[in-house]
UniProtKB/TrEMBL annotation:
<keyword id="KW-0436">Ligase</keyword>
<comment type="similarity">
    <text>Belongs to the glutamine synthetase family.</text>
</comment>
<keyword id="KW-0460">Magnesium</keyword>
<dbReference type="InterPro" id="IPR036651">
    <property type="entry name" value="Gln_synt_N_sf"/>
</dbReference>
<feature type="domain" description="GS catalytic">
    <location>
        <begin position="117"/>
        <end position="451"/>
    </location>
</feature>
<dbReference type="InterPro" id="IPR014746">
    <property type="entry name" value="Gln_synth/guanido_kin_cat_dom"/>
</dbReference>
<dbReference type="Pfam" id="PF00120">
    <property type="entry name" value="Gln-synt_C"/>
</dbReference>
<dbReference type="InterPro" id="IPR027303">
    <property type="entry name" value="Gln_synth_gly_rich_site"/>
</dbReference>
<protein>
    <submittedName>
        <fullName>Glutamine synthetase family protein</fullName>
    </submittedName>
</protein>
<dbReference type="InterPro" id="IPR008146">
    <property type="entry name" value="Gln_synth_cat_dom"/>
</dbReference>
Amino acid sequence: MSSWRDHIPQAARDYLEGRRLDEVECIIADMAGVARGKAMPAFKFDDSTKYYLPTSIFLQTITGGWADFRDGADLEPDMIMRPDFTTATAAPWTADWTLQIIHDAEDADGAPIPTAPRNVLKRVLDLYRAKGWQPVVAPEMEFFFVARNLDPNMPIIPPMGRTGRRAAARQAYSMSAVDEYGKVIDDIYDFAEAMGLEIDGILQEGGAGQVEINLAHGDPLVLADQVFYFKRMIREAALRHDMFATFMAKPIEGEPGSAMHIHHSVLDVASGANLFSTPSGESTDAFLHFIGGLQRHLPRAVALIAPYVNSYRRYVPDFSAPINLEWGHDNRTTGLRVPISTPAARRVENRLAGMDCNPYLGIAASLACGYLGLIEQTGPREECRTNAYMDEDELPRTLGDAVTLFEEATALHDILGAEFCKTYAAVKRDEYIEFLQVISPWEREHLLLNV
């Protein structure tokens, strides 16, 4: 008789070979990309057919509050957690033999819960498939290793390296800088191997203790699952070495921020050809339409790719962060960069997304804007061939402004789902209002005795 264990990836089978599975973690990403769910003994998972969680987890804010905008008659029904066994992977940092499995959220009739971020991405991918298209993405993950920060009132500082010194800034691509925290990098590699996750490369970024991990290109849902897993795993690896890993967009004052650059291309399903290149290797109208869609619609999607008040501290000039929606070939000052590549690998890099975004929603938002461009068939502005940091642009500068633009984005609502968009905006609005109630050290220092 077939078992669910016959349907899990080979890496998960290899991890369990000769061992007894102790526990299964049934997890799902909430609006923030935090893993929610339940853990159960393996024998309980074997005997169960359905798992339940309240749909209200998608109303939870990053501070643990609940956005309340729905009708008072809403009874907060449970959703059915449906395991996607292709996502089964080891949790190699645990003390026992544990698998984690990402679940999809369905209602009692088997319909997708529209507010579940993974379902939002699936909805966007279904629109591409209906056109005979297959999007391909490759995320780049930037993050910081930092010293343990036990008091939120204290600034975040870099971790201590193996030399006994704090990690140094402005050491981009330095191998010796990466070696300063080589042991935690070793654990990340080991964990990734046990989990069946492929790392395309690891490098030192420009910030003190800042690292970038590149992932191989592939199916957007698979890559979003991987980023979701990586963020959890990297935190666990750092904790083993008495440090934190943070995916905040701007954790340290005066240092660069952390992005999740997203590379996009779109294939024709029937032929396998890249829609962005002609058979002779020239760029296509579809390539320009995709960029045009990003330029027109990304301002209204910024709330999804820059989801917190801290996200907007990253959008400053001369810190390798975009402050514009210009596009250009091999131009890192533009928000939309076309990397050097062969014609078959022609792609567009969205440099606006922060590493603090939910990977499902960040990828969904970027693909939704590109999809609208393909449908509308309107090209972009002229290519930027100069330093784009000199240009003003239409990006919102605060979370409040971004949420307002998102609430008005009816074209995006049609792509992402109206119920999701209404829920997401309510969560972000509550978070922003709560932030505005906090008095910062800057205000106390400069206003207390001077105004």
